[in-house]
Amino acid sequence: MTTTPVVGRATTTAARATDLSKIYGQGETQVVALDRVSVDFRQAEFTAIMGPSGSGKSTLMHCVAGLDTFSSGSVRIGETELGSLKDKQLTKLRRDKIGFIFQAYNLLPTLTALENITLPMDIAGRKPDKQWLETVIRMVGLKDRLGHRPSQLSGGQQQRVAVARALASKPDIIFGDEPTGNLDSRSGAEVLGFLRNSVRELGQTVVMVTHDPVAAAYADRVVFLADGRIVDEMYRPTSDAVLDFMKQFDAKGRTS
Ligand SMILES: Nc1ncnc2c1ncn2[C@@H]1O[C@H](COP(=O)(O)OP(=O)(O)OP(=O)(O)O)[C@@H](O)[C@H]1O
Ligand SMILES: [Mg+2]
């Protein structure tokens, strides 16, 4: 399916970074991890963030997701400026509006798959939308594993629990830092397929950091970072086109 403009409905920005900089350390040891990055993540769009190791991908994601502070610039989730929030409000915003999928699945070992999936909502005191929960569980194919604990699940199944957990509360935006990095290619393809379906069919917004051109090809758009700056972007990426583009970084070598 190609993206066609939706007539009569403005494309809404789910998250936006403006002139975002993040500097670690001081003096000699100072590292500019992000150098005045401006980027929009539109609603119902699947964006991949790529770039060499150390280019600032995780830092960008963590700053936009409200998991890390930044040195200057601004970040908006929906209409909310993160810089204007107190710690408590930020925690609440993260809980209510943002879903996370990390490479380490971050599942609680003592809880079942289902309990892990609904945990963020339980903590927030929110009742899961039952029908939605069933849809998500069906989509990730965990129906007959719901009573299992993480240790009784394969890596791919654990990652699917993490995906379901991120989707279950219908967050405005889901961030994933190499969400398929630990998976074999088949499990990885499944998880990426769910993410793409959640964008196409459910209007979910997804931002994913990846090193893998095949994974990036599931996205609607790839944003390329190098040395803390956005250097290019690509719409409707194919793995070949992404691979080609990444070659220039290898040719130049790393600066750090
Ligand atoms: N806590 C920290 N203290 C000092 N420097 C840091 C810290 N975290 C990250 N950096 C530096 O900031 C830069 C960007 O790091 P970041 O983790 O965002 O890169 P990345 O693109 O996610 O890399 P990778 O692909 O290896 O995960 C790097 O040069 C890194 O060394
Ligand atoms: Mg990283």
UniProtKB/TrEMBL annotation:
InterPro entries listed in its UniProt record: AAA+_ATPase (IPR003593), ABC_transporter-like_ATP-bd (IPR003439), ABC_transporter-like_CS (IPR017871), ABC_transpr_LolD-like (IPR015854), MacB-like_ATP-bd (IPR017911), P-loop_NTPase (IPR027417)
SUPFAM superfamilies reported for this sequence: P-loop containing nucleoside triphosphate hydrolases
PROSITE patterns noted in UniProt: ABC_TRANSPORTER_1, ABC_TRANSPORTER_2
Organism: Streptomyces spinosisporus
Superkingdom, taxonomy of origin: Bacteria
Residue ranges constituting the ABC transporter domain according to the UniProt record: 15-246
Keyword terms: ATP-binding, Nucleotide-binding, Transport
GO MF annotations in UniProt: ATP binding
Entry keyword ATP-binding: yes
Gene3D superfamilies: P-loop containing nucleotide triphosphate hydrolases
Protein name from the UniProt record: ABC transporter ATP-binding protein
